[in-house]
Structure formats: structure tokens, C-alpha cells
């Protein structure tokens, strides 16, 4: 195999066609609301990690578990990249009527792109947090929050960090 781009071979590269059962697909006995998505810092150096927090509230009548998913989207890159990439997820048990604040780290390696070698590029990125993929259509209401951040500096190989 010589073509490692995976274009047209995985759900991440299908263009506008959504997968039948995307990651995180399923039902819950409760409902959840996301709010207060905070990225820190909102502008970071090329090799820095991003801290993320989000508040998850169980708005239903039953105790429940939610799989909180974080996806990253490159706004502009020098090579083809997925529409979005799963960079973190965590199962959170939240009692009915309660809320919890979840913390994540998105490390620099998760922003790396392949172009004959792994390297990092500056630019604008969007981070999505929610109980499903961005743009996913479900029968059960679920929301996905988004926030932008920028990476500053010059492009460099990942091993240089």
C-alpha cells in the first residue's frame, strides 16, 4: 500500500456523507445539557497543549452516564485532513438534576498532520465538545458546543517540540 491518505476509506474522509452509526451513537435514559466550554489559552504557541473544560448537566429525571466527546477541526492546512478528529472522550456519570465540570488536555501531537513526516502548523482550529459528532442528526436532542483557538509560530516537525 502506497497511499496512506485514507481519503474515501474511513468515516473521517467521507465528505458530506455521514456514517450510518457514528462514534457515540446510542440512546440514554436521561438528557444532558452542555455549557461553558472554555479553552485555555485561546492563542497558544506551536508546541503547547490546550486545556479544555466543559460543564455537563443531567437535565433528566434519571441518573445517567454520558460519553463526552472532543473533536478538533483544522480550518486550513497544507495537506488534506479529516473534517474533524476525535481527540478525547470520557464517560461521565451524573446524578439527575446535578452537574459536573470536566477537564481535558489536547496535546500538541493531536494537532499534528502527516506530510512525509509528522509536523505542526500554525493557524485557526475549532474544538467541538458534546455527546455526539459535530453536525450529527439524532432522534434524541443533543448539543455540540464549539470554540475556536489559534496556534502561533512557524510550522515545524513534531519531533522538534
Automatic annotation (TrEMBL):
<dbReference type="GO" id="GO:0005975">
    <property type="term" value="P:carbohydrate metabolic process"/>
</dbReference>
<dbReference type="Pfam" id="PF14310">
    <property type="entry name" value="Fn3-like"/>
</dbReference>
<feature type="domain" description="Fibronectin type III-like">
    <location>
        <begin position="66"/>
        <end position="133"/>
    </location>
</feature>
<dbReference type="InterPro" id="IPR050288">
    <property type="entry name" value="Cellulose_deg_GH3"/>
</dbReference>
<keyword id="KW-0378">Hydrolase</keyword>
<dbReference type="InterPro" id="IPR026891">
    <property type="entry name" value="Fn3-like"/>
</dbReference>
<dbReference type="GO" id="GO:0008422">
    <property type="term" value="F:beta-glucosidase activity"/>
</dbReference>
<dbReference type="InterPro" id="IPR013783">
    <property type="entry name" value="Ig-like_fold"/>
</dbReference>
<protein>
    <recommendedName>
        <fullName>beta-glucosidase</fullName>
        <ecNumber>3.2.1.21</ecNumber>
    </recommendedName>
</protein>
<comment type="similarity">
    <text>Belongs to the glycosyl hydrolase 3 family.</text>
</comment>
<dbReference type="InterPro" id="IPR036881">
    <property type="entry name" value="Glyco_hydro_3_C_sf"/>
</dbReference>
